[in-house]
Amino acid sequence: MSVLNKAHLPAPEEFQQRILNWYSQFGRRDLPWQIDISPYRVWVSEIMLQQTQVTTVIPYFQRFMARFRTVETLAASSVDEVLQHWAGLGYYARGRNLHKAARQVTEQFQGQFPRSVDELILLPGIGRSTAGAIASISMGTAAPILDGNVKRVLTRLHAVAGWPGQKKVSDQLWMIAEHYTEQRQTRQYTQAMMDLGATLCTRSRPACTVCPVVDLCAAAGQGNPTVYPHSKPKKAKPEKRTWMLIMQYRDETLLYKRPDNGIWGGLWSFPEFPSEQDLLAGLHDYRLDQTDAITRLPAFRHTFSHYHLDIHPVQVRVDHKPRQVMEGQDQVWYNEPQITQLGFAAPIKKLIHQLTETV
């Protein structure tokens, strides 16, 4: 049954103590961001871990920290270099916001992260849960968090009905999170809740038999923990198509920088057209359709969270450089060594590797 207000909740002490005892025995303490804990390292890890699994994040985090050791180093770097180190993690607005926030911390706070959740939320890309994680883990502030793992634990604990993306359900979960947040051992409690969701209270195969709070869990008592949290009502993903022009002149390739808004924002890509006819018409406008080699490479599908994108690459070798292929686009010719220094989305990087291997 859903919890409507704090009057329905038991005293938090027993739950907190069980969670902390479990963490002291079984919690993870050797993840890269749990070493040399600082607001900067916690912040970067929390942003990377949004929508991304720990095993995927670890090598990215290590490479990122090796290059951008401090928030000042990150702020002084170009957004292109930041996105190059982000390429492959997806959700690229996270990388752009990381760069913006680093500059803000450096310019407005003299390189010191603000210590209150309210101030942290004002930084680009930092929401309430991320701010709570930074404050609780690196500063010892008693701030609640509600990332995916914690959301799953608390939803099952009280059998909270409804999709957590709905405001009324989210508000209810935040109230529960605040109720249980430990005031003195905040860092350990926050880490424990994250670990419980990541290692025991998993999405499809929760290990209820070894859970330290199984007898307090309403969903376990019902015998159906995987029902919670309720899923978002499903809709069929739409399918979209794009034709990518891979134009090459000798050892150079034509690239353009995508706008900051939209998919792959701020990354480099190939010029795109809504159909093959439009692509060929563009070549005709620049008198490239009769004397140059055109090769249609195998199409492939890339799936986003909200739609499928079918990519049709068309390789064209030209004997002269047209000044502009797509109106209004920032286009540049790059050679192969330069390309390796740019940030690309995973499908574009895949195409570039394929082209390199066939040369």
What do these coordinates show?
The chain has 359 residues and is of the alpha+beta class. It has two domains: 6-227, Orthogonal Bundle (Endonuclease III, domain 1), CATH 1.10.340; 239-358, Alpha-Beta Complex (Nucleoside Triphosphate Pyrophosphohydrolase). Helix content is 44%, strand content 12%. The chain is built from 15 helices and eight strands. The chain has helices at 13-26, 39-49, 54-67, 71-76, 79-86, 93-108, 117-121, 128-139, 148-157, 167-180, 186-200, 218-222, 276-285, 336-339, 346-358, and strands at residues 239-249, 252-257, 268-269, 272-273, 293-296, 300-303, 308-317, 331-335. Strands 1, 2, 3, 4, 5, 6, 7 and 8 form an eight-stranded mixed β-sheet that branches. The longest helix is centred in the first third of the chain and has 16 residues, at 93-108. The radius of gyration is 24 Å and the shape is elongated. The model has no long low-confidence stretch (mean pLDDT 90).
Overall pLDDT score: 90
- Form type: elongated
Strand content: 5-15%
| CATH architecture tag of the largest domain | Orthogonal Bundle
Q: Which fold does the CATH topology of the largest domain refer to?
A: Endonuclease III, domain 1
Low-confidence stretches: none
User: Which structural class should the secondary elements be placed in?
Assistant: alpha+beta
> CATH class of the largest domain, please?
Mainly Alpha
Q: In this structure, how is the largest beta sheet organized?
A: 8 strands, mixed
